[in-house]
From TrEMBL:
<keyword id="KW-0812">Transmembrane</keyword>
<dbReference type="InterPro" id="IPR024709">
    <property type="entry name" value="FucosylTrfase_pln"/>
</dbReference>
<keyword id="KW-0472">Membrane</keyword>
<keyword id="KW-0119">Carbohydrate metabolism</keyword>
<protein>
    <recommendedName>
        <fullName>O-fucosyltransferase family protein</fullName>
    </recommendedName>
</protein>
<keyword id="KW-0808">Transferase</keyword>
<comment type="similarity">
    <text>Belongs to the glycosyltransferase GT106 family.</text>
</comment>
<feature type="transmembrane region" description="Helical">
    <location>
        <begin position="31"/>
        <end position="53"/>
    </location>
</feature>
<keyword id="KW-1133">Transmembrane helix</keyword>
<dbReference type="InterPro" id="IPR019378">
    <property type="entry name" value="GDP-Fuc_O-FucTrfase"/>
</dbReference>
<keyword id="KW-0328">Glycosyltransferase</keyword>
<dbReference type="Pfam" id="PF10250">
    <property type="entry name" value="O-FucT"/>
</dbReference>
<keyword id="KW-0294">Fucose metabolism</keyword>
Length: 583
């Protein structure tokens, strides 16, 4: 009311002297009707403006108040006009639910005629066993690379053994997570796979146990492991995660894709429950966004970041951090400036609103127990009230077969995130990278990764800009982090995140804007047929540049650790660095 009164008084103040001036000067008396009409128009405009929008300074103050420093959310402000996207601003000049030019690219991983089949490639009495390491998606990388390693070594692969001793203490075996028969059958032309190590005559084969360096290439395997296979007949490789080079020839990279995107299919119970979760969200909204929040206490402790919780936070996270005795001491401020810290739930919400996702967007959260609980989540829920998790979409009885097994619960999150219209990661860990690569392969569905290093400055300077300015800056800084085709140069980054050798360009649709590449339900869960190379596609993985430097911006993620309580192990008496662990 004060604003409206101010505008009316201003109009009268401007209009009334003009009328008096006209009356006192007879030579311009004939202009009195003109100035009277002008004054009325100005008065009407000021009154209308007071009803349409608050003053700019008022909106700016409300925007600043959103970035509160206290611990309790200020819900009243979140419900006011400022929290909505500004009229005509703060929106992307694109469809937020689709990637640019995604119709021109899709996955292609069929082997060429030159690639030797399993029948030709496999030598007798050679068996490769592997023991995976870490959580579900870290183990997935090991399984994928084990198939390729077996092909390199001309060996039979024994179904991989999953990690049951790490931090997560999940007792699940391979066949309880993945469809083992489908896995063996689908890859039968590439690598011979068996469920158990056979006997040689009447004797058990005792495998020789060893470990290969990280990022070991084909020549490395042939030099280090083949002589042992020739002598011992069976070799078991332990801690098998990221033990194969990022840079292989195109045929081996395509084998990786056949394993990852087609052969590894979850078991029927996991698929069925995952589909139920997706269907229940779809009944509520045509589109939905999935967020891998990764704001659990172990993640924050391992990162060494600080979030303003005082001595209590330092004590709680410091106690967890002691599990990894050889972690270097970090400077929290420096880590945050370098983009090494996960965004808070509030910051993620602000980023998404700035990118154009409105309050009516339905959002699924893939996460464990959030550090700080509901108090930490409150700002994100205020931004997006249509907020779901596995637990809100399914009953305890429905989740009972999965809830005691971290890998099975992670598999459900994986399915929902993969099926989402937009996937958002809050770190660059295993699940985020696996999903980013998969979504590129199956049609380039939008996959947003916060440009944390640049966004840090936006959040630091937030009190010095309007919502329109903040939104514009966020959109600018997120260019190249939205999951569009060709955002990442071929050969850059980790292969499972950027499977460039398996992404082909459809030259036939260059001039056809109405073409869409569907993702069949069968392919989503690991089945389906692959597209053959027919001369109309250009692969982006044909040239392998071995001089390419590995992407240095790996995020901290406990999935990458040598996951043993008691610390990261040392090799040869030397502490393993974070870089060597691909953290």
């Amino acid at each position: 009311m004060k604003n409206r009164k101010h505008h009316r008084e201003t109009a009268v103040f401007v209009g009334f002297p003009i009328i008096l001036l006209c009356r006192r000067r007879s030579n311009i008396f004939q202009l009195v009707p003109f100035f009277t009409a002008l004054s009325v128009i100005v008065l009407i405009l000021f009154v209308l403006m007071s009803y349409i929008a608050p003053p700019i300074d008022s909106r700016h103050d409300q925007f600043i108040s959103l970035f509160y420093n206290g611990t309790e959310p200020r819900r009243n402000l979140l419900e006011e006009q400022v929290i909505q996207e500004p009229m005509g601003e703060g929106r992307l000049s694109r469809d937020i639910w689709n990637s640019k030019k995604s119709n021109f690219y899709h996955g292609c991983s069929i082997a060429s005629d030159e690639f030797p089949t399993a029948e030709v490639n496999t030598l007798p009495n050679r068996y490769l066993l592997i023991a995976t390491s870490g959580g579900l998606n870290q183990q997935r990388t090991g399984i994928i690379d084990a198939v390729v390693a077996a092909h390199i070594l001309n060996a039979v692969l024994v179904i991989p053994k999953l990690d049951q001793q790490s931090y997560w203490k999940d007792s699940s075996n391979f066949s309880e997570i993945f469809d083992v028969n489908w896995f063996i059958s689908y890859l039968s032309k590439d690598v011979k796979i068996i469920k158990d190590l056979p006997r040689m005559g009447n004797e058990l084969i005792i495998p020789h146990t060893t470990r290969v360096p990280r990022k070991c290439n084909a020549e490395c395997y042939q030099t280090r492991i083949q002589p042992i296979l020739n002598k011992k007949h069976a070799v078991q490789l332990t801690k098998f995660d990221y033990r194969l080079s990022n840079h292989l020839d195109t045929e081996l990279q395509k084998l990786r894709c056949r394993v990852n995107y087609h052969a590894l299919k979850f078991t029927d119970p996991i698929i069925e429950m995952g589909r139920k979760l997706v269907e229940r969200i779809r009944k509520k909204s045509q589109h939905f966004l999935a967020l891998h929040l990764r704001f659990e206490s172990d993640m924050l402790a391992f990162s060494g970041c600080y979030y303003g919780g005082g001595d209590e936070e330092r004590r709680e996270l410091g106690k967890i951090r002691k599990r990894w005795k050889t972690l270097r001491v970090t400077n929290p401020d420096k880590e945050r400036k370098n983009g090494k810290c996960p965004l808070t739930p509030e910051e993620v919400g602000l980023m998404l609103r700035a990118l154009g996702f409105g309050k009516d967007v339905h959002i699924y959260i893939a996460s464990g127990e959030i550090y700080g609980g509901e108090k930490t989540l409150a700002p994100l829920k205020a931004f997006f009230p249509n907020f779901y998790t596995k637990e809100t979409l399914a009953s305890k009885e429905e989740l009972a077969p999965f809830s005691s097994f971290s890998s099975r619960m992670a598999a459900l999150d994986f399915i929902v995130c993969d099926e989402s219209d937009v996937f958002v990661s809050n770190n660059n860990g295993n699940m985020a990278r696996m999903l980013a690569g998969r979504r590129r392969y199956f049609g380039h569905k939008p996959t947003i990764r916060p440009n944390a290093k640049k966004l840090y400055k936006m959040f630091t300077d937030r009190n010095n800009m309007t919502w329109e300015e903040f939104s514009s800056h966020v959109q600018k800084q997120q260019i190249g982090f939205m999951g569009d085709p060709m955002e990442v140069k071929p050969g850059r980054g980790e292969f499972h995140e950027n499977p460039s050798a398996c992404i082909c360009e459809d030259t036939n649709v260059k001039d056809r804007k109405d073409v869409t590449i569907p993702r069949s339900p069968a392919m989503i869960f690991g089945e389906g047929t692959d597209s053959a190379d027919d001369g109309t596609r250009k692969s982006f993985g044909e040239v392998i540049d071995r001089r390419i430097i590995e992407d240095e911006q790996y995020w901290f993620d406990t999935d990458y650790m040598e996951n043993e309580v008691g610390g990261i192990q040392s090799i040869g008496g030397a502490t393993i660095s974070l870089r060597e662990l691909n953290i």
